Amino acid sequence: MDSGKVINMVPKFKMSKGLITFGLVALILLIVTLNAFVIINAGQRGIVLQLGAVRPVVLTEGLHFKIPFIQDVVHVDVRVQKSQSDQTAASKDLQIVTTTVAVNFHLEPNQVNKLYQNVGLAYGERIVDPAIGEAVKAITAQYTAEELISKRSEVSAKIKETLALKLATYYMILDEINITEFKFSEEFNNAIEQKQIAEQQALKANLDLQRIEIEAKQKIEQAKAEAESLRLQKQEVTTELVKLREIEAQIKAIEKWDGKLPNVTGGAVPFVDVNSAQ
């Protein structure tokens, strides 16, 4: 090869090498720049890990700087979450009760780094679900099966209080708890149904008895009123009143008489037939 051509190729090679080096440096700087910032979305918090260790700082919503390749950020949702499950427990009178419980809770935003350090992100199955089961069993055992139904709001309030204390230990806040259903055994349901039928029959019998008693009292009072009326009338009867009633009766008889005498009468003195005599 001609030595002149080789000499001419050296500057071109050096120029190409310089461009490649510049490109690599620019690419590295771009990657470093992009890796130096992190965005925390709404309803989230950022847990900073520096070489695997949890930092005490918690990143709020927005844009943040982090040390490239040294720090990592774990995004954690701090909005309200729901956990619903069926919990089986024994009541005070040893009835098996299946309770459907819906729980709303959220993480303490400023303590998510401690939760991550102590529990991790699987806090639902590790903490929340077992805590719900334990709270339901503890409170259900304090009431009979019938009381669980009649005192539903009280039972729910006690479960909420017990569960809130358990979740607070792991930096979680209980928002609300709803008991959507109580399920009992078929034998217990049949017993409740028979009891309700018996209570309805007893109520009907009691109402009938009250009605009979009221009617009897009404008849007694009516009889008393009639007796009192007769007593008052008897007190008012005098000889003059009797004669007056007799005269009134005779007057009514005369008013009804058609002017004809009877043809025959029983007795010693016969009546004369006036018509035949005429």
What strand line-up does the widest sheet have? Answer: 3-2-5
Alpha-carbon Rg, integer: 53 Å
| Helix content estimate | 55-70%
> For the record, what CATH class of the largest domain applies?
Alpha Beta
| Regions with little confidence, pLDDT below 50 for 5+ residues | none
Summarize the biggest pleated sheet. Answer: 3 strands, antiparallel
Q: What is the fourth-level CATH superfamily of the largest domain?
A: Band 7 domain
Instruction: Say how many strands there are.
Output: 8
Q: How many DSSP H or I helices?
A: 8
Mean of pLDDT: 79
The N- to C-terminal Cα distance equals: 194 Å
Shape, please? Answer: rod-shaped
GO molecular function: peptidase activity
GO biological process, one term: proteolysis
InterPro entries: Band_7, Band_7/SPFH_dom_sf, Prohibitin
Coiled coil: 195-247
How would you sum up this structure, described in words?
This protein has 3 domains: 75 residues, no CATH class; 104 residues, Tetrahydropterin Synthase, Chain A, CATH 3.30.479.30; 55 residues, no CATH class. The strands form 3 sheets. A 3-stranded antiparallel sheet has the order 3-2-5, covered by helices on one side. The protein has 278 residues and is an alpha+beta fold. The chain is 55% helix and 23% strand. The longest helix is centred in the C-terminal third of the chain and has 51 residues. It is rod-shaped. GO terms for molecular function: peptidase activity. It holds the Pfam family Band_7. This is Membrane protease subunit, stomatin/prohibitin. Keywords: Coiled coil, Hydrolase, Protease.
